[in-house]
Amino acid sequence: MRPDALTPLFAPVATLSGVGPKTSKLFDKALERPHGGEARVGDLVFHLPRSGVDRRERPKIMDAPRDQVVLLEVTVIEHRPPGGRNTRAPYRVVVADETGEIALVFFLANQQWVERSLPLGSKRWVSGKLELWDGHLQMVHPDKVLDEAALAKLPAVEPVYGLTEGLTQRAMQKAAEAALVKAPDLPEWIDPPLVAQRRWPTFRDALQAIHRPESPAVFDPQHPAHLRLAYDELLASQVALGLMRARAKKLGGRPSVGTGKISDRILAALPFTLTGAQVEALAEVRADLASHDRMLRLVQGDVGSGKTLVALLAMATMVEAGRQAAMMAPTEILARQHYERMLPLCEAGRIKLALLTGRDKVAERRKTLAALEAGDIDAVVGTHALFQEAVAFRDLGLAVVDEQHRFGVHQRLALGAKGEAVDILVMTATPIPRTLVLTYFGDMDVSVLREKPAGRQPIDTRALPIERLDEVVAAVGRAIQNGARVYWVCPLVEENEDLDLAAATERAEVLQQFFGDRVGLVHGQMKGADKDAAMEAFQRGETSILVATTVIEVGVDVPQATIMVIEHAERFGLAQLHQLRGRVGRGSGRSTCLLLYKPPLGEVSEARITIMRETEDGFRIAEEDLKLRGEGEVLGTRQSGTPGFRLASLDVHGALLPIARDDARMIVEKDPELASDRGKAVRTLLYLFEKDDAVRLLRAG
Ligand code: ADP
Ligand code: MG
Q1: Domain that holds residue 471
Q2: Which of 16, 57, 185, 655 could form a disulfide bond with 178, CB atoms 3.0-4.6 angstroms apart?
Q3: pLDDT by residue (tens digit) across 378-407?
Q4: Which residues have CB atoms below 5 A from the ion given as ligand 2?
């Protein structure tokens, strides 16, 4: 049960005085709960102001920073009420100091209020965001208009919060203050020596320091108050991951030892030998499978490093041990592709492989399900359809999850629950930096495939302005004359699927004018079967150019493809560019990647393109990406900050992560039931950060 002390933080924001049903909707939006829903008091408390207005700083109009909230001392010069019939025109009040003048702008103004608060000739303090509009300085709806006496009553530093349209700074400040009053003093969950050594404030003091700032220094993310709260959040996530892992360990594994028979037949059917990195990773996986502990391993390898094969051989080992294996892919296309590529190898190994996706016909699906339950199918590849309730196995021993970050931890656990002591192998093509592995996967064991299969040639990467499209089309034309296969990727336009589609469709039409039916098209809104058909036509060489939106981003394998054209490369993140480029250079042919961009390039886009031209090392690219864009981008999300975290941001608080992990490890080891005094405080911490799932594991024991 959630401790009573936390109850006030879990009350809806609407219960605060001054927050009505209408504004509460705005708070829901501004506070963005991780999984949506009604905003709570605790969300307000965790919605930290990012900056503040220091009232002791009293800039003159000429020197005042633009696009920031400022406090100005002014004299009222002129009133310009909206004239004539145009009721939508704003009420403007011109105010000035000795260095310049600005307009205060009020839309749909209450005329009387404006006249009363800003009498002509009076001295006033106005605070709001100062903007340059059409060559003039203005402040739209100042959030404060004060005389000297009112100013004296204000705090020295006023917090400035992130808002949403329709919500005022004032409303947010009042609500945050009302929420803060409800924030309880909680027992300390951080190791006392750490708190002492770092001179961190208590949880409640840290919140107060930031919401009621005494100096702007508190907005520095390295301020002890921020560090403390970031650490709280990191500790909660590490303890939660630690508990899950401890439970997996405690439930134990079932040793599964292969005979090598099936694997040998598969290896014999391959036209190549395994790379050293594959051999090593496979040995690590097999050792895990054979042990009494449950496997929780991440196979991290750049695009084209041969992870899928490692996974297949792991599955073969499990089948040799007499149990079943499943592989879950993030998309229909990928599931199908894995299936098709694995099928001949499984036939060679004499394993029965099935495909299970949301698109199967009912009768077919029923047959597959029955065969899985009866154990007539040894291995299955599928989409998230795999962890639906109807799916039962005779004896699932291994679950392989491809491209993990698209699935949540919950889904992973759901698949793990489909069998007794299911070993879990996660494959990720995103070369996640070490720090992120820790955050998202906790203490997972990691195998890295750093070496690529021999014979791969470096990809010639070039950047060209879009004005040279004609040349590119001509070059592509020559290349397909010689049998080349070309991907042509059209980008995300304003995160709008319809527009994306228009861009890709239009490009396909243009190319069709040149190359007729050699041009195919695949995009996210096509029906599954049409997508497959387009992919297959390209795979078989019936089409030579495949125009695509980013649906091909992950994992698609057509070794004959040697040219990748990426339009509007400046709009893609580095990780995405790298993933896309990884679609070529997979066979023995020499490959080219053309990054078409629209000049002028911004600083970040230029840096990205330079890095792309410099290296194909996904690990280096991931690190650079982290530096350029913050870690959200590395994982392919558009969120800013660290996905899944509200207070901690790994690029600023990353150094706290190993400390939190070690501390979490110690807590879970010494006090696995969280029964000691500190353990109980840690329970509170878990509830505070809504890690209820993890606490539930304790009782499930
Ligand atoms: P990943 O999943 O890591 O992107 P894949 O497993 O899809 O990589 O492998 C990419 C391509 O390389 C596939 O066509 C695969 O058959 C081939 N491949 C895998 N291992 C080797 C190897 N040891 N030598 C040569 N080619 C390999
Ligand atoms: Mg793959």
Answers
A1: 459-615
A2: 16
A3: 999 998 888 777 889 999 999 998 865 555
A4: 308, 555
